[in-house]
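Record type: monomer structure entry
Structure origin: computed from sequence
Chain ID: A
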Amino acid sequence: MATTADIRNGLIVKLDNSLYSVVEFGQNKTARSAAKVWAKLKGVDNTRSIEHTWNSGETIYPVRVERRPYQFLYKDDSGFNLMDTSSFEQIIMAENMIEHPELYKDGQECFVLVNTETEIPMSVELPPNVVLQVTYSEPGMKGDTATRTLKPATVETGATVMVPLFVDTNEFVRIDSKTGAYIERVKQ
């Protein structure tokens, strides 16, 4: 069994018959009492976000999760259609199980997190960053580069991303898939 010493970001634990992913954790130690370990948890099989505290050394119940490579095919009324890149099996995932659904484009690589105990898909995530083409952006004003000013730009998936003034229509940009923030311009 695992203890609170094994807690790390991204670990999925079973708590009160629900699965939670550790977003942030830390330890509190006071002079006269035992150390406590706290964690901010995000629901994997539900939409709740909670904070939980354990006594140091207490048993936790981690769940073994595999990241399997899939390809995003298309979105329709039933959900997001994904294909396993090794067996070519197709699955349909609901939009609430997708991280940043506005950044998915047809044919894009993604990863499905699967609970190995039950073989049930839990969520879908993108690689750390994605490259998308800007389809619309207001032109930047010449000489407006003294400060880090941002403007909205629409990318090929329909999402709106805040980009620097020098980014124009039809250029490619790299976007952080966890936050949806602009990283850099990409030459293609």
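Annotation 1: The domain at 2-60 is CATH 2.30.30.30 (SH3 type barrels.).
Annotation 2: The mean pLDDT is 88.
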